[in-house]
Amino acid sequence: QSVLTQPPSVSAAPGQKVTISCSGSSSNIGNNYISWYQQLPGTAPKLLIYENNKRPSGIPDRFSGSKSGTSATLGITGLQTGDEADYYCETWDSSLSVGVFGGGTKLTVL
Amino acid sequence: QVQLQESGPRLVKPSQTLSLTCTVSGGSISSGGYCWTWIRQHPGKGLEWIGYIYYSGSTYDNPSLKSRVAISVDTSKNQFSLKLSSVTAADTAVYYCAINRGNNAFDIWGQGTMVTVSA
After folding, report:
1. Over 80: is that where the pLDDT of B32 sits?
2. Which of A13, A14, A46, A51 sits 20 to 30 Å CA-CA off A85?
3. Contact yes or no for A20/A108 (Cβ under 8 A)
């Protein structure tokens, strides 16, 4: 069981908006930066969001991140079929002294 | 643009040592401020942080792996390596190398290599 909790799956129609939550504790999300990754089938993860809400160069502004207390949220607007993927949150856990990932959320664009 | 490529045996016998290398191209492994990291993904499962080596040479690994991890750098070959000892079937996974370039995230990843532990 992952230290960070994500919903196993979410779905929405093309063009709509979806949010993916990541819940943790004060030892991880509460006191450390969070990042988000997209993993398309059969490929390596790709960084979408770093330091809670920053987008690397080349990531469209359809993707956004936010953090409040011990939870974080990834938002995706204007959904496209190409957004179908697994999404992971990640941060450092100061109590466990280890990097931790959420269990992943599978996004289906209906 | 920095790119990473994992290499190493795809099949390892139980109790032996898994050895993988990550070759860095388009940049220097001696770059300051970077964490050269190994991450794995069990089949059909989520991601697991294995450990990293900092540009200064200091290393840190996941306590859950019970000190079976060794990460090193070879600056002459622009590579960093992972050794995981006493492997079992539970170590069967896709192994990724990745870089944290000081932005608290893994912004560059290798394509991953599948390693199977089996007799």
Report:
1. no
2. A51
3. no
Q: What tens digit of pLDDT does each residue of A25-65 get?
A: 999 999 999 999 999 999 999 999 999 999 999 999 999 99
Predicted local distance difference test score (pLDDT) of residue A7: 97
Q: Which residues of chain B lie closer than 8 angstroms to A90, CB-CB?
A: 47, 49, 105-106
Answer whether residue B55 shows pLDDT above 80: no
From chain A, the residues in CB contact with B103 under 8 A are 50-51, 54
**What would the mean pLDDT of A69-84 be, rounded to a whole number?**
97
| Buried b or exposed e, range B82-109, using 16+ CB within 10 angstroms | bebbebeeebbbbbbbbbbbeebbbbbb
Cβ contact B106–A88 (<8 Å): no
Q: What does the alpha-carbon distance between residue A46 and residue B109 come to, in Å, rounded to a whole number?
A: 7
- What is the number of CB-based contacts under 8 A between chain A and chain B? 59
Q: Do A98 and B96 touch (CB under 8 A)?
A: no
Q: How far is A44 from chain B (nearest CA, A)?
A: 5
* Residues in Cβ contact with A45 at an 8 Å cutoff, skipping those fewer than 6 apart: A37, A38, A39, A88, B47, B96, B106, B109
Q: What angle do CA B65, B67, B69 make, to 5 degrees?
A: 75
Are the C-beta atoms of residues A24 and A5 closer than 8 Å to each other? yes
